[in-house]
Structure formats: structure tokens, C-alpha cells
Amino acid sequence: MPRPPVRPERQHPHPPLKVLSTRVPVVVLLVVCVGVMMATEAVVVMDKDPYSNLVVAVESDIQDCFAVLQATKQILSEASTALVEASDGRLAFTKVTFLVPDTIAEECGLVGKDHPMFGGQPWTLQPQGCGVSGSLLYLPYSFLINISPTARGKQVLHEWAKYRWGVFEEYGVAGDPVFSLAYYTVPNLTTNTSPSWTPNYCSDATLNGTFKEPCDWPDCEFEFGAEQAAQSSLMALPTLSSVSLFCDNTTHQALAPTKHNARCAGRSVAEVLHAHPDFQRPMQNVSVDGGVDVEYVRYDPGSEGSYVLLVEMSYSVSDDIQEGRWTLLRSAIKQWILEDVVEGSSLGIVTFMDYFDYPGTITTESSLTVVTSANRLGLSNALPYSTTTTSRSKYISTALSYVRDSMTSESVVILVTFPDNISSYDTEEKLVEAAGNNTVWPVLYTYNNDTVVQSDVELLQTLARETGGQVVTVPDYIYQNSTDKQSLRTQLSLVQLLRHITAASSLTPDAPPSQLQVSQSEANTDLATVDVFVGDNVDVTTDLTIMLYSQSQPVSLTVNNGPVSTQPTLVAGTAYKILQTFQKGHNQLTIRFTDAPEPHVTEVLAAAAVGVEVSVEFWASHDLSFLYLDDPQDPVTLYVKVSDVGGRAVVGAEVEVEARSGTTSVWLHLRDNGGGADVTGNDGVYSGFWSLVSQGSGTYTLAVRVTPTTTSRIVGYTQPVVNSEGVRCCGSALNVDPLPSQHFNATLYFIVGEAEVRGALVLGQPPARINDLRGAPLATNVSLNFTAPGNDLDRGYAQKYHIYWSRDGSSWSLMQDTTYTLVEGGMLAQVVFTPPQCNQQVLYKVNAQNWQTQVGEDSNIASVIVSCDAKPIPIPSQVDGTSKALIICLSYFGGVFTVLLIALLVYLLYYRNWFGRCKESVSDNFHRGNTTVSGGHTNQEMMESYLTPKTQNNQQESSPPTYQAPQPSQQNSPRLSVYNAPAHPPPPPPTQMPHMYPKKDRAPAPQPRREAFQLADENKPAIYEDTSNHNVTVSDTDADSSNTIYDTAYG
């Protein structure tokens, strides 16, 4: 029997959680026919090896249950056969376990639905980069029932490759500006001859067929002939009967405009696959002649779950090590049982210590019991008040065996332990065997990188991975005025992790979260003021819960200058509970103490609003417990998925992640545009790099804010019908325009997690790689468009762009004599220039350089052919070396009527002093300090205005500087020109990462080194030039007490 179903790890809106391992992809083939529930919330399990036991979760609302299961078995058999051939005999699906809800185990009467956006097409949610596993593999009802058997197996393998191995499509998508249906190939091009087009598929042979007329090149559909010789690629042509392999280094077409080339930097699919552990296995000629073995497991989706607390009581967690360590642990568990455990759940409590005194040191504090209102208090007091042993030794496998044999083998075991002194007896094999069918979630309490044993941590990570759990951590919060006392924040952190574990392992995944965390703050003063923002996702008709963690009861609490409606009630240890009504928007919570001997912590919890059926999921590419932001080769990416409960994506919204440390916040902007960190636009997954912190290393509370815009909408069918066509997945962005939509107008805000930043930025990171470069002829010119990188990854403005060209991709030349408009990171940039050659294919690639002279990686490759016979069109010219003041003066000499010329000259000579002031204004603009530039603002004013937080009613567009490269020495070089120039110039960028000062400690900004560049004004360009050789330091804004810093600041 496999272990009970466990929900995939995902970060709920309410728990601030610390995840030791990165977001673990769920190894599951999801067979669902979704009605009103998100596909990502299906009940699934994670198994040790998906090839020896692939677990398939079956939803309760499917049609023809028996037929669906039989079809799935057949499809997996076909996929397994294809997998054996494609992996050279290494891999095969040998067994599948279906988890069948009790509600449909006897009969199937409900109608299943296809996906609300993708209809009857199989689909993989794949928001991360090359070689990184996807989040979900989705097979809809129509696909299982209606598609021809031969095609289905290879289509499943196609999706499995994306989901498991992190590769991408090797074909073009109709209407996609980056990944076109056809492209030029270099061998087919000769000067002054008609260009030849190639269908955009990776294959090892010429494809038989013709392009479907009329053609709007390169967006032209290719019609395949009946006979094909191609054997690859499964990522391009899985439905062709002749195709059975992936493209390798000998057949891969690195210059083709495919998503795989763009995201994997031109590497072949086989090259990415062979770097995965699956392909490190020896060739063993796996046989699939017997098909796939099947096992059916019934479960009750209405069960509230079964949990066993397995708590270490060794000396490592005692109060003797650090004051409050055991006391706060006990208080947190008591609070969780009293406030958060769902009634009807089963709960057992076991403590363990040294193995040598077994069984005396393994104690059942409470047998497995159904939680009721009558026994809650007794269960909450089951743990002993103190530890008694002086030994640090522990035998975890013995304790797990005890739980398995004497209590349960079908539960979630929450293992609270300190990762040190684990016995050498506890090997990976013994731990996994001892767990049985229980799912184990190790909680590392408390975790300090300097004191834990890393090999013990890795041992527990293996235990969690093999049993379907996940390692989570409570950081070693130490009271700032002591070296041996645990901070009160420890209790809050453990409570939040326990909430997360019970939510993530729930057997009712479609149930909305019981509560949202909308605020968290910490203060060490007698008077604390907390801003609590309540969004549309909060039910304000009921009381919100204020949980205050303090050593003493407050003397007064007010909300919006009025007293709270209930007095504080002591729940457990240092936790006080207050019920209070709040209004939507900003609320001011004020807490006063007679004395505050140590920091006190506040969180505000709320019930989810009824009718706002929007789900928000948050995760990161890296371990949030030990986060290093200073590795240029491995940037940290944040992801937020916004969708309604039916799986429809929310597109066009403004999504931000707030990283708060103390009273200072940094807002990180995430985008769903298919460029930069975002893999696919318009899929509802918003992505962005984390490259800025306000206080250096330390703990940051993360919150998500989703704000509607004039274009934000929910897209997809509200009642998805069987055989609905849906949108094609997945080009640079989904074309969601044909789908029905409704306006999205809810503002959402809640805490989603915490991050321990161990390594902060010193000089910043290089600009992000451009993944969506596209090119097109514009009369006699070339137009290149791309999502602009920033100074640090996607934040701020880069210093310059480098544009390279080549005829065949073997050697590249830098375009010289360049002038163009720099665009803020994440925005669409355009460069227009004269090509080096016409009537011939020219390849282009771009990278960016930041103000620390760091250069980002080369972009994907775009190819453009410009006709020699095209008629030129005027391109807006750029006036070099001319200030706005001088342009105003010179405009007087451009009078339309020649009869006014003499009078105009007399006028200017008479007012020659005014003319002199114009020239003086030009000269002044070449000096730093507080000289006025571009519109009458001083440099300091522009810098502070730029760092001032944007509000919804007062948003200002930040405009780019315009870069002019030095004039080249060679003649007749291609020239780039500005094509569009936004408005409102930003301040000049500093030459290093800013150090953030509070207002009272703000350091004066030294003068920067001399560096010439242009600032594009809304009308005409202005010149600006630095005059010193120093670095510049940017301090945080004093616009308000929160010291908010936006990520658009220069790095």
C-alpha cells in the first residue's frame, strides 16, 4: 500500500514558511477533469521513483471513471514504450498507482471538464528555467478519450520531458512574434536570389510538405505530406508516426527560433536530458512487453487528516542550551492545537531521546485521537514542561519505527528535531524503511548554519523527499541583547510552519484556507504602531484575529484611534489573542506597554472573503532559509501564480512582492510578459528576479500584493466544455484574446513567507539575459525588439546595449556608432538601424552592460532579411550634444516665414544677454552637484523623486537615459538610431550598489566619476555629464516612516 495522498508542496497565502529545500516538483502524472477546482490543488503524492511507481491522482468529478482509468493505463503503456526508445533503454514506466476517491470508487456519475484555458490539450505548467522540473502535468478528459492511441503515448512523453527534465518546445507557434512558424536557413540563402523558408521544427531530415498559401511570412503554416523520414524530434513532432527520438547535438538546429533554443541558450534537448540524474542510470534494456502494472487505492477526500507529532526531547532542544528553546517549542505546539488543528482530525504525540534507554525514552504522550472541542485543552498540555536528559544523541529511525508499529502507518509525521548528533545507525535506507507508509515532514528546530551538522540535514532531506514530505526550518532567532536566549519570534515561526504542514498535507485540497495572514511586525519599544492593510480577499464582516507575542500584557491597544473590542486573552506561553474589526484598506494598530524588555511580535489573521474566488500561490527558485543574492551565475527568481478557483489565469494585473525588514521595505515587481525571468506570458504566473534588499543580510518577511489595472482580466471558460479547443501552448506568450474574459478588479495582499538572506549584494548582478529577442524589416532598416534587462538583472536601467551581427552564427561583429534609447528593465525596448547587408539573412544577438561594467549573457538569436528594393522611411533623428535649453534657443532661427528672418535676428541681438543665458544653461548641464538639468529639477531632487514610492493615484513613468557610444574610427559602419523616447528622465545611475541609510544617519553622496550620457526628455533629448572620479551612494527615501524603496532604483 502506498502512503496516503499528500498534497504537492505549495505556499499557501497564510503561512510564512521557511523551506529548506527548493520548491520540490511533484512527481505525478495528474489525470483530472477539473470542474470548479484548480488543477494545481489536486490530491497527489510524491514517490521515490516515478518509473517504478508513478502515482496518478483521479479527481472526483470525472465521467466514465472505468473508461478513463483504462485509457490512462493504455496511454502510459504507449508512453513507456516510447520512453524506452528515446532513453536508450534506461527508463520505462513499469507501474502506476491510481488514487481513486471513495465517492466514485463504486460508480461514476458526474461529468468531467476540460481545462478552462487549454481545452482538450495536454499541458505542463513550466514556469522555471532550462533543466528545471515543471510544476504540473495535466491530461484532460478529451485527450484521454478521443485522441488516436498512437499519438497519445508520444504526446504524454513530450509533456513528461517538459515536466520532468525541463526542456521546451522545438516548434513555432502561429502569430508568435519570437517563435515564428517558419524561418530562413543560411545554406538556402544566396545573394540576389529569392529567400527560401524552412518550417520551424527541429528534425533530422527534410520535412515532406508545402506551405499553406497565402503566406504572411514568417507566420506561414506548413502542411505535412503523408510520408516522412524524420525520426526526431519528440519536442517538435510527437504526432508524426516516424518520430521517436529527441534532437541531439548532430541533428539540433541551434539557430532555429524555438522556445527551447531561447531558454536553453542553443543547447540540444539531448544535451539537457543527459545532465539530468535520470540519464545517469546505466543502459539496462528495460522491457515493457508486459505493459504497465496497475494498482488502485481508495481514499476518502473528506477526511480531515491524521497527524503524529514526533518531538525530540534531547539536550539539544532544552532550555539549558538557550533560554526559552523548549518553553517556546511547547507553547507553539499548544497554540497550534488550540487554535489551528481542524476539528475531526486525528492527532497523536510522541517524544523521543537516546536509543540506549529504549523504550523508556520513547514515550506516547497522547495516542492517536480524534480532535474535538472537549479534548483540545488536554491534548495541548500533553507535552512535558521540561526536558530531563543531558544527552544529545538521537535515533530517529527507532522513533519512526515506534510510530509505524504502535500507532499508525497511514499518517503525516511531523518530526521536530535539532539536526545534530544523529546516530550513524540512521542511514538513508533505515530512515525510509522505518517511516513505512507515513509521510515525514522534518521540522529543524532551531536552525543555525554554524551549529548544525550539514550531513544530518542532508539525511533528513532524503527522508522527506522519499516519503513525500518536505524539510522546513525554524531559524535560530536570538534575543538581540543576549547570546543565550531565544527570541519570541521563535514561537511564531514554529506555529506558522505547523499551520503550513497541515494545510499542505490536507486531504481536502479544494477547501479554501481557513485564514490569511495579512500583517506581521516586530518592535522593541514601549509604543508600537503597525500598518495593517486589508485587501479585497479579506472578510471584513467578521472579526480579525490579532496574535501578540509578548512577555507582558499590553496596557492599551487601539485600531484606527479607537479601543479594541475585546481584551487580550493569553492562549499559550507568550501568545495573546485579540478579536477586532478592521476596515478595508490601511488600518493603524497601536500597541502600548508599560515596559518592553525584549522585542514583541504581532501578526494579524483574517478569514478569506466570500465571493473573491482567486487563488495566489508563491514560491521561489532557491532555498528561502539560506538565501544568497550575490551569486551572478545563479540569480534568485520569485514566482506568483494568480488564478481563479476554476483554473482561469489572471492576466494584466500588477503583482509585487514586498520584502520587509523591520520598518523598511523593498518592492519587487513581477511580470507575466514572457521576457526576462518570465517563461511564458499571459499564463497567470508572474516572475521576477530578487536583486535588492534594504538592510543587507537578515530576515525578511515576504508579502504579495496583487493590484488590478485597466487591462487586468480573468481569461478562460467558466464552464469548460468537453472538446473545447482552448489556446495553443506555449510560445513566448499565450494568445488569450479568443478566450472569454471578465475584468479583474480585486486588490489582494497577504504574507506569504520569510527569507533568511545570508549573502546580500555588494556590486550588484549583471543585467539579465534577453530571452525574447525578435527582429523584423522596417523598410530599409532593421527593427529589434526585446524585453529590456536592467542594471541588476531586471531592475533599473542598464548602461548600454551591445548589438552583434553575423551571417551564419560562426563569428560575430559588434555594431558600431550606436545611438539608442535605454528602457527600464522589464519594459519593451526597440532599436532601429541600417543593416550591414540587404537581400541576405543577417543574424543578431544582444546583451547589456550595467554601470559596474558587468556584461550579461548573450540573448537568443533573431534573423532578419531587408530587401534592397525597399523604400526608406524617415526615422526620428537624435540631436547629439544639444541641451534642451539650446534647442529652445535654436528654434527661434527656424521660423517658417522668411519675411520674419531679419526681425528675428534683430530681436535676438537686442536681447543678446538672454541668448548668453541660453549658452550658460548649456554649460551648467555639464556639471554634477545640484545643477539644474532637464526640466528645472536638481540632481538631488530627481534622485529623491525617483526613489519615492509610487502610489496608485500618483504614478510617474520613469524614463530611460539615452546612450551614445563613442564615434567609431572606421567608415560606413551601420548606424543605430532612437526610434521611441519615453518621458520624465530618471537620475543618473550610481557606479555601485547603494547602501541604505536611515534618514538620521544618511551619508552625503560623494560626487560620481565623469561619465557622459543622455537623458531622453518627453520632447527633446538633454545631455548630462559627470565631472568627478568618485562613487555615488544612494540612500533610501524619507517619503514616509516606512522607508519604502522601489526596485526600479539604480543598482
Automatic annotation (TrEMBL):
Q: Where is the composition biased (Basic and acidic residues)?
A: 998-1020
**Ranges that cross the membrane:** 20-39, 885-910
Q: Which residues form the Calcium-activated chloride channel N-terminal domain?
A: 46-281
User: Which keywords does this chain's UniProt record carry?
Assistant: Membrane, Transmembrane, Transmembrane helix
- Please give the Pfam families that the UniProt record associates with this protein: CLCA
Region of interest (Disordered), residue spans: 950-1051
Q: GO terms for CC?
A: protein-containing complex
**Pro residues biased stretches:** 983-992
Which residue ranges have biased composition labelled Polar residues?
950-975, 1029-1051
Q: What is this protein called?
A: Calcium-activated chloride channel N-terminal domain-containing protein
Q: Which organism is it from?
A: Petrolisthes manimaculis
